[in-house]
């Protein structure tokens, strides 16, 4: 995952959240995003895939300066540029 440092990423977790942002650091138990968009899918009628695709097209709109995500909760991580529009 070190290859993602400095790049825009999509982080899927076990909970109904999706995280988008620039990966800043990777620690033993957490990964750190800067200029991140933390999106609670329960607050939206859109699906995870639609939300991520829209971010790919229109860019990430941050709502957090810094986010720490526990690695044990991460299901997948990918570069935002890898999302198919």
Largest sheet: 5 strands, antiparallel
Q: In CATH terms, what is the architecture? A: Roll
Distance N to C terminus: 23 Å
| Elements, N to C (H/E) | EEEHEE
The coarse silhouette is globular
Layout of SSEs?
Blueprint: E1 8-13, E2 17-26, E3 30-40, H1 48-58, E4 64-70, E5 74-79
Antiparallel strand pairs: 1-2, 1-5, 2-3, 3-4
Give structural notes.
The structure is a single chain. It contains one helix and five strands; from the N terminus they run E-E-E-H-E-E. 13% of the residues lie in helices and 47% in strands. It has one domain (2-80): SH3 type barrels (Roll), CATH 2.30.30.100. The chain starts with 7 loop residues before the first strand and ends in a 6-residue tail after the last strand. Strand 1 and strand 2 form a beta hairpin. It has 85 residues and is mostly beta strands.
List keywords for this structure.
1 helix, 85 residues, 5-stranded antiparallel β-sheet, SH3 type barrels, 47% strand, mainly beta, 5 strands
In short:
By secondary structure, the chain is mostly beta strands. It has one helix and five strands.
